[in-house]
Design brief:
The complex is a heterodimer of chains A (about 400) and B (about 180).
Chain A (H helix, E strand, L loop, with lengths): L15 H16 L16 E3 L8 H13 L11 H4 L4 H9 L3 E3 L6 H4 L1 E3 L2 E10 L3 E9 L8 E11 L10 E7 L3 E3 L5 E3 L24 E9 L10 E13 L3 E15 L7 E8 L5 E8 L3 E8 L14 E7 L4 E2 L3 E8 L6 E8 L8 E7 L9 E5 L3
Chain B lengths: L3 H11 L3 H10 L1 H12 L2 H18 L9 H22 L1 H4 L12 H8 L3 H12 L4 H8 L3 H28 L1
Helix pairs in contact in B: 1-2, 3-4, 3-5, 3-8, 4-5, 8-10, 9-10
The chains are: A mainly beta (about 400), B mainly alpha (about 180).
C-alpha cells in the first residue's frame, strides 16, 4: 500500500455485541454434555493418542463400485461401502488382504446372520474388518433407521472393549468412530468425495454428506487400536456396544430417535501382516535414533532410542512422528498416517515409540523411505525422509 | 500455518477439551471478526456469524483430519455462515430496512470505512491475502473461484483502496 495507514495490520477491538455472542457460544458448549464417544486413553503415563477422523463415501460412488464388480470379473470380494472410506484400498489390495485373511467381509460369511443384533427395529451387523497387531478397522451396517436430508445420524454412545468385562482396565481399546458420511481425504490430505471431486455445499452453505447407500442403509466405521503398544489385537474377541440412535445438531446436541442397545461380538482375524525392519538411523536435528520399525499394510510402529529426552512442551513430548512414506516408484504419500499414539516406554525416557494407522492400504514391499516430522510446525527443515530396506 | 500451541489446542479440543477449544477460538477471534466484517460490514451480523462458527467448529471438529488445515477449515465454515446471514437478510430486507445503526458499528471505523470504499467482491480476497496470510491458491480453493479471478480481485481491490487513501490524504491537505 502506498499510504501511511494499513488496515490489514490495524489493531482490532471487539465490540460488546461480538464478545457477548461469542461468550454465549462458549457457554452453550460448556453446558453441553459430551455428544461423542471417545474413550480416555488408558495408556501408561506420558503416552497420548493422536486423533483419527472419519472418512466416508458418497452414494453415487457406491453405485460406481458396484458396477465395477461386473466389469472386473476376477475380483470376487469387496469391502463394504464404509470400510473403503475408513481405510482406502484398491480392488487388488482388498482382494489380497481378504485372501491372506488379514481382512474379512462378514456379509459373505455363513455365520453372518447370527452376528446381527436387532433392537427396536434397527439391525446392526458387522460388515468388514481389517486387522494387524496394533490396529483394527471395522465397519458395521445399520438398517431400519433413516434420517432426513441434512440431519447427522449418530449413536448416543459407542464402546469397544476386549473380552467380556467393559469395566476391566485391561479390556480397554482406544477407538475413534463415526457414522460414514461420504467424504475421504485425498493423497494431499484434503477432504474430498470418494471419487475425488471437491466437497459441495447446499444452498444454506452446509456441507453435503451422504450417510445412506442406495438401499437406505448406513455404516458406522471404527478405527480401534491397542492401548499398550506391546499388546496385540490379532485373534482377540472384541465387543462393540452401540447405545441409542438418533441425530446430533449444534443447537440441540444429541436427539434420541431409537432407544436401543446393540452389543456385537467379533473374533478378529489372527494373521500377522507386520514386518520388522532394523533401521538404526539418527533423526537429524533431534536426540532420537530410529532403531527399528514394525510395518504392515495398515499401520506401523517406529521404535526410537533417545540420547536425552527433550523437555515436554504442553502435551507435546517432542517425539518425532511418522507422517507418510515414499514409495520405490517415487510416489509420495505425505499424509498417510492417521490416528495412533506415541510415548516413552520407560521411566528414564531412553526409548520411545510412535504407532500410527493409515488412511489407505500400502504395499510394504514398495516402501522406500519414511517421512518423519520432528515438530508439529512442520517447517521444511523439520521434515525428513529416512530410507528403509524392505 | 498453525503454531505448536494451537496444534496442541486443536488436538485437545478434538478430544472434547472445552477449555482448549475456547483458547483455540479466542486465538483466532480477531481474524474471524475481520473476515466476517469483510463480508458483512455490520457488527451484529458479524457477531451472529462468529457465534454460529464457534458452535459449528465445536460440533464438527472431530471431522477435521489434519490440524494444520484448521484455520482454512474454520474460515470456510465462517464464510458459509456469513453467506447464510446475507441470504437471510435479503429475505427480510423490507422489514429490517428501517433499523437504526447499532452503536457497536462505531468500532473499528477505519477498517470499515476503508472496506466500504472497495467493491464487495474484492474485500474478502484482500482480507485473506493481506491480513491473514493465506496464499492465493488457498484463497481460490476456499472461495471456489479460479486462481486468476482471485489474483484479479486482489489487484483491483488494492487499486481501489489506494485510490481511497489518495482521496483521504487530499482531504487532509485541504483541511
Amino acid at each position: 500500500m502506498s499510504n501511511k495507514k494499513n488496515i490489514f495490520t490495524e489493531k482490532i477491538e471487539l465490540s460488546e455485541i461480538v464478545l457477548n455472542k461469542t461468550d454465549q457460544a462458549f457457554a452453550m458448549i460448556r453446558q453441553e454434555d459430551s455428544g461423542h464417544m471417545k474413550k480416555a486413553n488408558a495408556g501408561e503415563a506420558g503416552n497420548k493418542r493422536l486423533f483419527k477422523t472419519q472418512a466416508a463415501v458418497i452414494a453415487g460412488t457406491c453405485i460406481l463400485s458396484v458396477s465395477s464388480i461386473s466389469v472386473v470379473a476376477a475380483i470376487r470380494h469387496y469391502w463394504g461401502r464404509g470400510m473403503n472410506g475408513n481405510i482406502q484400498a484398491s480392488d487388488e489390495q482388498q482382494q489380497e488382504l481378504l485372501e491372506k485373511n488379514i481382512a474379512k467381509v462378514y456379509r459373505e460369511e455363513p455365520e453372518s446372520p447370527s452376528l446381527a443384533v436387532t433392537d427396536n427395529g434397527v439391525t446392526i451387523v458387522p460388515d468388514t474388518v481389517v486387522v494387524d497387531e496394533r490396529f483394527a478397522y471395522m465397519s458395521f451396517q445399520i438398517s431400519g433407521y433413516r434420517v432426513e436430508d441434512g440431519m447427522e445420524p449418530t449413536f448416543g454412545e459407542v464402546n469397544v472393549y476386549q473380552g467380556d468385562d467393559p469395566e476391566d482396565v485391561d479390556s480397554w481399546v482406544n477407538m475413534s468412530g463415526s457414522m460414514y458420511d461420504g467424504t475421504i481425504c485425498n493423497e494431499e490430505g484434503c477432504p474430498v468425495y470418494e471419487d475425488g471431486t471437491p466437497l459441495k455445499h447446499d444452498e444454506n452453505g452446509r456441507l453435503i454428506q451422504y450417510y445412506t447407500d442406495q438401499d437406505g442403509n448406513m455404516e458406522y466405521i471404527i478405527q480401534a487400536y491397542v492401548v499398550d503398544p506391546n499388546d496385540t489385537l490379532l485373534g482377540k474377541t472384541v465387543h462393540v456396544r452401540f447405545q441409542n440412535l438418533g441425530t446430533h445438531s449444534k443447537r440441540e446436541g444429541f436427539a434420541l430417535a431409537v432407544e436401543g442397545d446393540w452389543n456385537l461380538e467379533i473374533v478378529l482375524p489372527d494373521v500377522s501382516s507386520a514386518r520388522d525392519i532394523t533401521v538404526g538411523q539418527k533423526v537429524e536435528g533431534t536426540n532420537f535414533t530410529l532403531e527399528s520399525i514394525s510395518i504392515s499394510p495398515i499401520s506401523m510402529k517406529v521404535n526410537y532410542s533417545v540420547d536425552a529426552a527433550p523437555a515436554k512442551q504442553g502435551d507435546d513430548s517432542g517425539i518425532p512422528t511418522v507422517r507418510g512414506v515414499v514409495l520405490k516408484d517415487g510416489t509420495r504419500l505425505p499424509y498417510l498416517t492417521d490416528g495412533g499414539s506415541l510415548g516413552y516406554t520407560d521411566s528414564s525416557r531412553s526409548k520411545a515409540y510412535h504407532m500410527a494407522g493409515y488412511d489407505r492400504v500400502i504395499d510394504v514391499d514398495e516402501v522406500a523411505a519414511l517421512i518423519i516430522w520432528t515438530s508439529w510446525t512442520a517447517n521444511e527443515d523439520e521434515r525428513m525422509e529416512i530410507p528403509i530396506s524392505t | 500455518m498453525e503454531s505448536i500451541e494451537t496444534k496442541v489446542w486443536i488436538r485437545k479440543a478434538q478430544r472434547q477439551d472445552k477449555d482448549a477449544f475456547t483458547e483455540l477460538m479466542q486465538f483466532y477471534m480477531k481474524d474471524m471478526y475481520r473476515t466476517a466484517i469483510a463480508i458483512l460490514m455490520n457488527e451484529e451480523d458479524a457477531a451472529d456469524a462468529l457465534q454460529d462458527t464457534i458452535l459449528t467448529c465445536w460440533e464438527k471438529l472431530y471431522t477435521l483430519r489434519k490440524p494444520e488445515f484448521f484455520k482454512t477449515w474454520m474460515t470456510r465454515i465462517l464464510i458459509n455462515h456469513c453467506y447464510d446471514i446475507i441470504r437471510h437478510n435479503s429475505a427480510y430486507e423490507n422489514i429490517e430496512a428501517y433499523e437504526e445503526p447499532s452503536k457497536c458499528d462505531e468500532y473499528n471505523l477505519e477498517l470499515k470505512e476503508a472496506y466500504a470504499s472497495v467493491d464487495e467482491r474484492y474485500r474478502l480476497p484482500m482480507e485473506l491475502y493481506y491480513s491473514q496470510g493465506f496464499r492465493m491458491r488457498e484463497i481460490a480453493e476456499l472461495l471456489s473461484l479460479p486462481l486468476n479471478t482471485i489474483k484479479t480481485r486482489v489487484s483491483r481491490g488494492r487499486k481501489e483502496l489506494e485510490a481511497y487513501y489518495r482521496i483521504c490524504q487530499e482531504d487532509e491537505h485541504v483541511q
